[in-house]
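Kindly inspect what follows.
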Amino acid sequence: MLRDPSVRAVVVVSTAEEMPANETLEIFSGLAEIDLAVAALVVNQVHSAPCDANTLARLHAAPVSHTHHRSHETVLELV
């Protein structure tokens, strides 16, 4: 029942800071490993849009190939 997307939703909530953003990427990765898709990402404490609507649409549509870590930061590689 929990794996059926018609009856469940995972909503991830984070803040727009470095550590919570990195933790959110780990959550996304962990959920993907157990085949649970994220229905929504809520980012609290954002007072202005980080980019325009066109950029957000392109990011949403871009497949993520993998993540890797560079010292203290996590980098998503978009295909």
